[in-house]
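Troubleshooting entry. Yesterday's outputs looked truncated, so today I'm pasting the complete records for two proteins to confirm everything comes through intact. If either block looks cut off, that's the bug. Protein one:
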Amino acid sequence: MGDATWWQRGVIYQIYPRSFMDSDGDGVGDLPGLLRRLDHLTWLGVDALWLSPVHPSPMDDFGYDISDYTGVDPVFGTLDDLDRLVAAAHGRGLRVLLDWVPNHTSDRHPWFQASRASRDDPKRDWYIWRDPRPGGGPPSNWLRYVGDSAWRWDQRTGQYYFRVFLDSQPDLNWRNPEVQEAMFDALRFWLARGIDGFRIDALVALVEDDRLRDNPPNPRYRPGEDFPYMRELSVWNIDRPETRELAARMRKVVDEFGDDRVLLAELGVPLEQTVAYYGGDGGGIQVPFNFELLSAAWDARGIAGYVDRYLAALPAGAWPNWVLGNHDSPRVASRLGPAQARVAAMLLLTLPGTPILYQGEELGLEDVPIPDEEALDPIARLVPGHGRDPERTRCPGTPAPAPASRVAAPGCPSASGTGPGAWPPSATTPPPCSPCTAACCGSAAPPRPWSPAPTSRSRPTATSSPTCAPATATATWSPSTSAPTRPAWPSPGPRPVAGRWSRPTPAATARRSAGRWSCAATRAWSSGPDPRSRGGLDVTLRAGLALAQGRRLHATPPTM
């Protein structure tokens, strides 16, 4: 039996594989490159790696348009490469989560190719096809992400198909039981290979109103500021009750393989709707992403108020989580400035609950401006000014592609050296603990005043490249077999303490129901009152909430 609460005590680190580490010099990050960086991630002190999609894809949306849910795209490596990565990560005490994209497939997926071939094809109902309105035109007024009609006319069969995102990303029909079982089997395939859980992409878009009722207009829409799709209220095609029921079924599939597997979910809906995905009995998504800090005004009183509301809204038994950055949002150091990025990191790691950290945030990396003529993100072309390339640029140490392949390579320029904690790839020794975590990571050095990071930061390098034995213990699964027995999980043991984000493993655990909370910075359990009580905010909230008397966060890093 694995440790069912590892994700409550640990830090989840998101990796965008295309720009993380390139092993073969083609300008695209890959799995062998990620394998080379595992020692860095172990030193960093994170507990789990969440990988953005690595499945076969035409790459219209850089992996979020999947043509095979049980394979690995050659641009990233092979299935054996992924098995080796999982085995090596597990050997270091790291968990591995995959991105799962259940809302839509690529239009090159065999399922859609068959569905599009004929109205009579058995897979026709695997996608959402509808006739025009009686007077002509799309079946409903629903808008897709970029602001035009969510319905795409297919001349071949004389019907519209539904898609929330790109034309090449048709939505699956999750009302079809065959679709449900095929997608659940894809989860089982990866769970049987040792994957520890999944981040679910665009979960709230899974089910639409079966009567195709029109959405009402949004009276608060701000032209030029909001995304174009926000001019209507998506009450009939987003966050339907059936979606929450399906989320509970996903949880049951994951639980077939043990209670130490975890589901994370992208939602992007208001707080009250977000917490509903925990499930009334705790049988839903364990980590429904809390995105408020991605867009919150950087004001102590406002942040304190939101934290209070969020903790108060959690259902009994639910565990909080915090997201400060991801592959779809400007980097923290660009949003707040390099100095405030340090404050934000301390806030992230001292709030009670599970922090989710995006690659490069530990280095203070900033967005890299991408000229319009070099934009790769399709959203940048469809909704100018909203492209996501700047936060997806290469991490330090990733080789640059040849000039001729600059546009073809998704990383574009490297973000090396742009932030306060960046280091050159040639450095060989780790940086000292930052002042805010010196006591947490076990350093004997006393707290000291903060000073700007030196121009040269270093990271650890192994004396030889990591070697990993083949994943001989990998279990196989088929629909006719029961869940395999998983190899025993390694005992926690001491963790490296040299890195700025490293923290000791807790000696004991406790449940939130016992009136105790933990933060990632100390991995210790508070003995004070539940921080949802306004009169008893725990000391672990000190990074942001102690400033709630009306003062703004420091313009320069504080003396610690």
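Protein two, checking that the full record survives here as well:
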Amino acid sequence: MTLSGIGGFLAYRHIHQSRQDRLPTLIQLLQDGYRVFFKEMARKLAWVVIGMTILLAGLAYVLESSIIVYNIISFLLGLVFIGLPSLTALSLIMTLVPNLSDLLKRQNKKSTILLLNTSAALAFLFLGLLFTGALLVDWYFGVVGMIGFVLAVVLVAFFLRSAATLYQGAAQLTRDLRWKDGIPVDERNPATVLAMLGRYLSEILGFSSDLMSSYMFGFVASLFAMDLIGVHSEVQSLPFILISIALGSALLGFGMSRFQLRFTSQNLLVNMIYFSVLINITAVSLLFYFIPFFDYNLPLFLSYVLGVLGIVGVGLIIDSVSNPHKNPIKEISLSAQFGIVPPFLKSYSNACYSNGLMILVLILVMGGSYMLASFLGIALSTLGVLSVSTVLILGKVFSAISKHIYTLHSFIPMETNQHESNTQTLYQQGLGVSVIGNGLSAMIGIFSTISLLTLVYIAFHQDAINIRIVLDTWMLLGIGFGVSFFYLYLSWISHGLNRSIRGLKDEVIRQFKELPFLLENNAHADIKKASQIQSRYTFDLFRLPGIVIVLGPILLAYFFNASVVFGSLLSVWILAVCNSYTWANYADMNDTAFRLLLSGRYSGSEFDNFKHIVGSRNITSIFGNILAPNIIMMMKAVTIVSMVALIVLLYP
């Protein structure tokens, strides 16, 4: 609660100290797009919440189950605790960008402090409020009542992450079409403005909500582990203590970065992450040394440390292939001079290499923690992986906003050389944590989901306490259902993306034909109308996938058994491991190469290699920035709905 209060104070301070000067035109257009997107999302989300509540209430009435009633209450509470930070983030979006842009005209240090404070405000608000809500729900309803809370978090995250990535992807691909009749791709083109808006939404709200849903998966997995072994109530507080230490370590890391700014801003965010990890491991080691939770404290501590080292290791793997200052990105950038195919293949090779190493790390962490402390070790290693969530959100918000400011000033001329230098410096600081991308988010989602799946399997197969998974006929049937749904989901998303691109393209052509003087740059595009069309296309494409995600697991549990449900979840998880992480890094590498060329490196943006990298980037972004996050969110959504179905129908 204290940490969420700190975040709230920082947010309040920056909202109410903002200047009320007239906003630049482009920023005003972006704000119009924000409002339309959130209005449309709120309307769609309200209908889904009403439908989900009616469905759960109907099941509670028919089955006369008090557990469902508890989960309805926790579901509604979860909507509150995930909705409040999202609305606060929207308020910060409305005020921060113009004030930060204005501050960069004079000095860089204060702008860095402002951006760092705002990033911390969002990170502590998101995870502080979420942790507070989880604490209250577990206190009143226990671990079974937590399912409704997690369902709410995943539902909102699904809307923010999946919808924002599709919104941004469709706008970016529309912008880069081959336009005729002299239609430009600058701020006069609605697709250009919506692409900037969508990237901001997907990289801040989408990424944060994705990470928060993984956070709750790991937390519930640890509670399940405690419940399965029947520990005393004092020991059941261990997950809460570990999460509190992780949040406190993040706060100390933030304080260290503020102190470092007095002397230098070099490697600011990277140092903050490493310092937070060091403080976290030190505090947890002292906790296990002085407080005997179990007779085997050392294996539990080592399991937690394995999780922390696992996420750091994956971060280093991603950094080795996507860091703009290292050879792989340089090779991708230079290979673009020979066409679209060379950077395409080079980045794919690096992504497969990275995925192979990630799976090896996953096996070592999961296997090592299980050998150390059985399934309780798996749960604690997951908490170790998630211990860096706060600083990852902080770093990602900082990086995304600095990138957003840099992109804005490619359309809004900078007034002085100092203004340009300050903006470039802030952008380079954000690039220092380019490792925090969709690849890292995918790995965290994969790890937290398999941890929860393992413990759910044990809960419903008590004879599998040693995790001996028998692939009987029922489980094989479930694997078939899961594989089928995975590829149907990809087909629906791809088809919807194509429709969204066509719809936005038609709207862009209509505006340039019907709006007087728009082509001559003496009028502004109707961003409200364009954003409304784009938002409706985006949310409408989730109708059929959403129905299948909700009803599919329920029907499998009703007509078959737990083995079929678990088999379907296992196949979805395996396919997500094989695709999402690779695709995410695939796109991140091409995007980094694109931004290096855009900033003037390796011959800059004036030659053919820039056009080639744009083509390669657009192709890979479909997989990495659109399909990969959607796969991860689908995997989480199916998992949590399956848990509800199993608890309600098979064990009422």
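Both blocks look complete. Sanity check on protein two: DSSP finds 18 helices and no strands in the chain.
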